[in-house]
From TrEMBL:
This is Uncharacterized protein. Keywords: Membrane, Transmembrane, Transmembrane helix. It comes from the Bacteria. It comes from Kineococcus endophyticus. The chain crosses the membrane at residues 12-31, 43-64, 85-109, 115-135, 142-162, 168-187.
Length: 202
């Protein structure tokens, strides 16, 4: 019989992937401020984003090192859900990528490349809504709402006010980095709980 303390490998893998993705996105969004907020402000935001990314990656590595001792046993229902969620995730990710590329090209073609970054933030935010249903996580709904609001606010500000593109892009980048950073913290807490369940010597 499987030791009940063992962590399901599928759960462990999902958390590791989540941590790595949030590390990459948090660092990337933060780095956007280097070009829009030159000087100390952009450097500080980027440095904080990189530090958070390093934290997430360290948590991912620590958890991944216990993978060999994780449980691979699943019920037929769990296996079916894993396959369905994997397929659904692939479709959502594909649609997200297509929409981002399409938005960038269309906005460039109509002479509004200044709208690209907030449009990307809006698409990324919206993609969290189906993720909430696929993975049965309420946190995705909160993240979707916050990031979608950030992207939409950026679009409306550039469309209807005289605020500079760099100011808006910097604020959108900060909002997006805070959102992905919050998601990274969420995964980090889950990783800590899974590590606490790991039997001694694992």
């Amino acid at each position: 019989m499987t030791d009940p303390r063992l962590v399901p490998r599928a759960l462990l893998d999902g958390v590791v992937v989540g941590l790595v993705l949030m590390a990459v996105f948090t660092a990337a969004w933060s780095a956007n401020t280097l070009g829009t907020w030159p000087g100390a402000a952009g450097f500080v935001v980027t440095a904080l984003g990189v530090l958070a990314a390093v934290w997430f990656l360290v948590s991912a590595v620590r958890l991944a090192r216990t993978r060999r001792r994780a449980s691979t046993e699943t019920t037929p229902e769990e296996e079916r859900w894993r396959k369905r969620s994997g397929i659904a995730f692939g479709w959502v990710f594909t649609v997200e990528a297509v929409l981002i590329v399409a938005a960038a090209n269309v906005l460039g073609a109509v002479g509004r490349p200044d709208l690209v970054l907030p449009a990307i933030a809006l698409v990324v935010g919206l993609h969290f809504y189906p993720m909430a249903r696929i993975f049965r996580r309420r946190v995705d709904t909160w993240l979707a709402t916050v990031l979608s609001a950030v992207g939409l606010a950026g679009l409306l500000t550039l469309l209807f006010t005289a605020v500079s593109r760099d100011t808006v892009w910097g604020l959108v980048a900060c909002g997006a980095a805070l959102t992905t950073g919050a998601y990274g913290v969420y995964f980090t807490r889950i990783a800590a709980g899974l590590l606490a369940r790991t039997p001694p010597g694992a």
